[in-house]
Amino acid sequence: MTNDTTYHWPHKDLLDVTQLSEKDTLHLLDVAASFQEINSRPVKKVPTLKGKTVVLFFVENSTRTKTSFDVAGKRLSADTFALAKTGSSLNKGESLKDTGLTLQAMAPDVIVIRHPSSGAARFLADLLPCSIVNGGDGWHAHPTQALLDCYSLREAWHGQFAGRTLLILGDIAHSRVARSNMHLLHMLGVKLRLCAPRTLLPAGVNHWPVEVFSDLNTAVRDVDAVMCLRLQLERQQAGLLPDLAEYSRRYCLDKKHLSLALPEVKVLHPGPMNRGLEISNEIADDPACLVLDQVAAGVATRMAILYLLATRNDGGRA
Ligand code: CP
Is the domain of 227 the same as that of 270? Predict the structure, then answer.
């Protein structure tokens, strides 16, 4: 945790990593580390957020983000409730504005929103006085994923980000995870490489602070970590890939590729994984693969996010 006793978390909302300074980020990771121990206790509950209410408003499918925010809130004794598209009045045509105002009328402290439209979290943050957390909006941003990835890498790299090299591999064009990680890890001094077929690179990638590769054997050489991305078949327009077998042959991370990286190389994946498409079975089940560590880090990181946002006006310090 930051030793600066004058530090105070300055943000009402968490919408994008671009709003975070290095100090905000490291403080949040330190708070997460202080909460991690609670997750291994026989009784995994503390009263820190007793009386606070957290809404999980998920208009798009999720396993990890939704359940880990739910677990995080409950472990801190917040009351959590979930609203999904299915079973709600969104399916009767109620607007995002009216749904947000309806939720606000129940006086929540934090709303976590996942939405297929980029900018949906910002829209609610401008509309409502409660804190808004972006749990993933369109192709735009997934800040809590990037923060938990940072947490995992900090553990794996013994706190040392500067000078490390991370390769982000796969469907970068459609990935809010890649965008958020690129911003956050660049700020922390990590050297970034991207590897993808040209059709899965975003427009404007030339302006990103990255090295771009199309050949995986070249891209993976001497990296400290590889972040595989899910091939987002549900977001793709037809014709971006000639065929999936060809994609897998060129871009599915396997042991042969990994042998070209540094000996202590780690593999990350935000999940859900398409085994055999972007990551081989042998790598997905290898000890170098941190995918389940990332899920565990997600609980601690989201505990920290809820704590910092829900207590920002309480004079609280972690
Ligand atoms: N990484 C991630 O956002 O996973 P979910 O879609 O399962 O929440």
Answer: yes
CA distances from 136 to 62, 98, 120 (A): 10, 20, 9
**pLDDT tens digits along 180-237:** 999 999 999 999 999 999 999 999 999 999 999 999 999 999 999 999 999 987 766 6
CB-ligand 1 contact for 270 (6 Å cutoff): yes
Determine contact, residues 194/135, Cβ cutoff 8 Å.
no
User: Using an 8 Å Cβ cutoff, are 125 and 133 in contact?
Assistant: no
Ligand 1 pocket, residue 143 CB under 6 Å? no
DSSP 8-state code for residue 202: P
Cβ of residue 136 lying under 6 Å from some atom of ligand 1: yes
Q: How much is the pTM?
A: 0.96
Q: What is the DSSP letter of 236?
A: P
Angle (nearest 5°) at CA 177 between 171 and 179: 85
Mark whether 77 and 26 lie in a shared domain. yes
- Whether residues 74 and 159 fall in one domain: no
Q: Cβ(149)–Cβ(181) under 8 Å?
A: yes
The string of DSSP codes covering 208-232 is SSSEEES-HHHHTTT-SEEEE----
Specify which residues 262 forms β-bridges with.
none
Q: Can you give the residue range of the structural domain that contains 236?
A: 143-290
* Shared domain check, 39 and 122: yes
**Whether residue 272 sits in one domain with residue 162:** yes
Does a structural domain hold residue 316? no
How many domains is the chain built from? Answer: 2
Residues 133 and 158 occupy one common structural domain: no
Residue 315 lies in a domain: no
Please state the atom number of ligand 1 nearest to the C-alpha of residue 142. 3
